[in-house]
Amino acid sequence: MAQPGKPVIEVQGVGVTYRSRVGLVRALDDIHLQARPGEFVALVGPSGCGKSTLLKVVAGLLRPTEGAVRLEGVPVAGPASHVGVVFQTPLLMAWRSVMGNILLPMEIRREDPRRFRRAAQELVDLVGISGFEDHYPHQLSGGMQQRAALCRALIHDPDLLLMDEPFGALDALTREQMNLELQRIWMEKKKTVLFITHSIPEAVFLADHVIVMSPRPGRIIHRMPIRLPRPRTLESMGTPEFAKLTEEVRGHLKASGALD
After folding, report:
1. Residue 20 CB neighbours (<10 A)
2. Whole-angstrom Cα distance, residue 191 to residue 162?
3. Which residues pair with 222 in a beta bridge?
4. Over the Cα atoms of the chain, what is R_g?
5. Nearest to 232 by CA among 42, 9, 6, 84
6. Strands 23-35 and 74-75, how do they pair?
7. Which of 4, 96, 188, 237 has the most CB within a 10 Å radius?
8. Which residues pair with 59 in a beta bridge?
9. What is the pTM of this model?
10. Which residues of 124-158 are buried (b: 16+ CB within 10 A; e: fewer)?
11. Distance (Å, whole) CA 13 – CA 31
12. Does residue 1 have a pLDDT over 60?
């Protein structure tokens, strides 16, 4: 477990350059960021700015060209056991039930999945898909599939949760509901969260801190604390305070050339 006050995530001078058909592409440049225990940090920026690349670097799925990443003080050299990842698409195994998908990480770790069935059931109850444990992905709505994917990411009780636009493919009403659900789960579990999104309101609604990125090569151009009281409601999105915060983020994106 992370020590109180010590960063869970430390990204120091990270840059990523990759080779494409047309030559070298600079995806990220000189990224510095931290997240402390229990913080919800949202990254917002235009398409192609390197948000997902940065998340893959933090997750240990991609090596940076330069710089370093530490999780709980330990240099990242590959995927870590205390990290859970949720992608934009649920990536559920079509031939496995909801419960089977949730327990899959424990099987990969060569643990007896029966030992984790109670924990899995508690997660199913927590995210509101009780009664669908034996259903298959094609029998679920998009929102329910993402709830199952969230359970799968939490089954091994990770300290850190990385989320790459997990609600981007959902309709607006389902997305709002999932934002409320994620806030509730985060407040109960108190995981450290790094959350990627294109949506400025979503970032402000969910986060303790919003980090704004520039167009490629992605750089951090603004860090903004969000001091709105919790739990936040959909009604809070209509307040002057919320509007001021979203306009501040939007202003920095405009200044960087991300918005016309």
Report:
1. 7
2. 10
3. 212
4. 18
5. 42
6. unpaired
7. 237
8. none
9. 0.90
10. bebbebeebbeebbeebebbbbbbbbbbbbbbbeb
11. 5
12. no
Residue 136 · residue 96 · CB < 8 Å: yes
Instruction: Spell out the alpha helix ranges (H) of 155-237.
Output: 172-189, 200-206
- What average pLDDT does the segment 235-258 reach? 92
Q: Which helix (H) or strand (E) holds 222?
A: strand 220-225
**How many angstroms separate the CA atoms of 118 and 31, rounded?**
40
Contact 84, 71 (CB under 8 A): no
What residues contact residue 110 under an 8 Å CB cut-off, 6+ apart?
none
Using DSSP's 3-state secondary structure scheme, residue 8 falls into: coil
Q: Which residues pair with 28 in a beta bridge?
A: 16, 218
Q: Is the pLDDT of residue 3 over 60?
A: no
Q: Helices 142-154 & 117-127, crossing angle to 10 degrees?
A: 140
Which tokens sit at 71? 């999780």
